[in-house]
Design brief:
heterodimer, A: 326 residues, seven-stranded parallel sheet, 28% helix, B: 258 residues, alpha/beta, nine-stranded mixed sheet, two-stranded antiparallel sheet, 6 helices, 30% helix, globular
């Protein structure tokens, strides 16, 4: 039976939703699921790995792994693969996942497919046949990616793409405390500066409220922030307002910003340039609020209101506040 | 001291993507090819480094069908790169083979003091080549870099991570820096720059002359599709209060997303 190695990530002591998705998917395939858990947060949260489907946990409860370091982590992943003989690696297409795994792939001559939105796994005589659907051109189109000529296959899945159920507290896993080789490092992490917002990143957010040039000036962006706060949503922006300096580049949605896939995307004062529409094309439900009925954003929207954002958005914020308080 | 900058030519972001009838790829007829926007930022940073470090030499490197890729290399030369090299290959190489080829050429033409790249290319969106290239060259890397400063021995940088957080990282040189938007504003090529670039010889290397087997390709794409068409938008009528009420009710009861 082939083994799947799931690279798990923790936020404080909680197992990230994206890791829960990967463990649950892996468990459903019937394969032996090994979770790799690095750092002291993982040490505190290891029980959750079993609840979501890990049969075996490689735990390295060492504060050296509390901050992500590509050289250090690449060795840990490579050694985990040697130790377990796993032939498929699943990880989230998070900042660290995307930074780390291409380096691992080059190190061990593995194949890698990033930003998967669908994955299927079929047993063949020659091994696992893995098919991954992924967006190209930031979501202007999709393609199916498949591996060739590689003993180890690495798939990075986007968050919020696989179903996740609550954990089963009766499940248990064997925990192996492991120590990995620490190479002499040429990468030194000096400092981690926390973001102003503790909200989920755009790429992981379930609800996004985005603002564009229709808001006229930087100060008016507050109505976007207020609506996002009422919904517990992450704030996004169009390129025009990022270039104008109203908000930082980390909030930009689009082909030269972030590609997002929330359940709900609310676009306010955004006309919908082709690059922006590409970046948000993975959204399930899209709401557009714009005073121009001919704006292209309405062609991609599920619901739309043609009208004045300054009148509509504060009312919407009030409605959501009332609704979500109860 | 050699500074390499790796760049890719991609369809302009304005491009409307069309799929070939057999769904084996995109229809590239009529596509306007440009330098990947993140790679422009990489070229700018390499040139800025040269301006601060006399004696540094900037080599622009690209892989792809040479007939069109040389145009983006000319742009890099016009911006201020000293030399350009094209690795002539078909379009179908994956990140693994691309990183092998780039590493092979950098080893021969180098050694590199620094390698600059964009954080990703806006076509395949893999963000894989920079990290693979760094591993192949046995040098450290940092991706999504939005601030950069270097001493001869090391590079100090900021990288953007999740939720607006930033990591301050020091890399011991030689190192690879994969840049994000916000690091700099790429310059426009000056007219004298463009004239000078036209006269420069772009070195050509055949992918097939490198000791890399195209049979080692690891990822293949098929079954291209366009995103599913959305049903027509449901627009709400009435005054703003009524529109808001209808919207909230649909979000709650029809699609149940809140």
């Amino acid at each position: 039976m082939s083994k799947i190695l799931v690279f798990t990530e923790f936020q404080n002591s909680g197992l990230k939703r994206s890791s829960q998705e990967l463990l649950q998917f892996s468990a459903k395939t019937g394969r032996h699921v090994v979770a790799l858990a690095l750092g002291t947060n993982a040490g505190n949260g290891a029980a959750q790995l079993a609840q979501h489907g890990a049969k075996e946990i490689l735990l390295c409860n060492d504060s050296a792994y509390d901050a992500y370091n590509p050289e250090l982590f690449a060795v840990a992943v490579s050694e985990s693969l040697q130790q377990t003989g796993a032939t498929l690696v699943l990880a989230s297409a998070s900042s660290s996942g995307k930074d780390l795994f291409p380096r691992v792939a080059a190190k061990i001559n593995a194949g890698i497919i990033s930003d998967g939105v669908e994955i299927s796994l079929v047993s063949e005589n020659t091994g696992d046949e893995v098919k991954v659907k992924k967006p190209l051109y930031s979501g202007k189109c999709f393609a199916t990616a498949q591996f060739e000529n590689c003993a180890v296959k690495i798939v990075l899945m986007r968050a919020n793409q696989l179903p996740v159920a609550s954990g089963d507290t009766t499940k248990v896993a064997t925990i192996s405390e492991v120590i990995f080789t620490k190479p002499s490092l040429k990468t030194i992490i000096k400092e981690i500066v926390r973001g102003a917002s503790e909200k989920l990143d755009l790429t992981e957010a379930n609800i996004i409220v985005s603002g564009g040039r229709g808001l006229k000036e930087a100060a008016n962006f507050k109505i976007i922030e207020d609506l996002a706060a009422a919904l517990g949503a992450t704030v996004g922006a169009s390129r025009a307002v990022v270039d104008a300096g109203w908000v930082g580049h980390s909030l930009q949605v689009g082909q030269t910003g972030k590609t997002v896939a929330p359940t709900l995307y609310i676009a306010i004062g955004i006309s919908g340039a082709i690059q922006h529409l590409a970046g948000m094309s993975g959204s399930k439900v899209v709401v557009a609020i714009n005073n121009d009925a001919s704006a292209p954003i309405f062609q991609k929207a599920t619901y739309g209101i043609v009208g004045d954002a300054f009148e509509i958005v504060p009312k919407l914020t009030e409605e959501f506040k009332k609704l979500l308080q109860h | 001291m050699k500074i390499f900058v790796c760049l890719k030519q991609v369809p302009d972001t304005e491009t409307k993507i069309k799929i070939l009838p057999d769904r084996s790829g995109i229809d590239s007829s009529g596509v306007k090819w440009v330098m990947n926007p993140y790679d422009e930022i990489a070229v700018e940073e390499a040139i800025k480094f040269k301006e601060k470090n006399p004696g540094a030499q900037v080599l622009a490197l690209s892989l792809g069908p040479k007939a069109r890729v040389v145009e983006s290399l000319r742009t890099a030369l016009a911006m201020g790169a000293d030399e350009a090299i094209v690795i002539n290959s078909s379009e179908s190489l994956d990140a693994y083979l691309t990183a092998k080829a780039l590493a092979s050429v950098i080893k021969t033409e180098g050694p590199a003091h620094l390698v600059f790249t964009g954080k990703l290319s806006i076509d395949a969106n893999q963000s894989s080549v920079p990290q693979m290239l760094a591993e192949n060259l046995s040098i450290p890397h940092a991706t999504v870099v939005s601030k950069f400063a270097a001493t001869p021995e090391s590079s100090t940088l900021e990288r953007d991570v999740e939720g607006g957080a930033k990591e301050v990282v020091q890399l011991l040189n030689p190192a690879l820096i994969a840049v994000n938007k916000g690091l700099n504003m790429p310059r426009y090529a000056s007219l004298p720059g463009i004239m000078k670039a036209k006269k420069k010889v772009i070195k050509e290397i055949e992918f097939s002359s490198l000791d890399i087997s195209a049979k080692e390709l690891k990822v293949r794409y098929s079954e291209y599709t366009l995103p599913p068409e959305k049903p027509s938008v449901k627009l709400f009528a009435g005054d703003s209060s009524s529109q808001v009420a209808q919207l909230v009710s649909c979000l709650r009861d029809e699609v149940r997303v809140i």
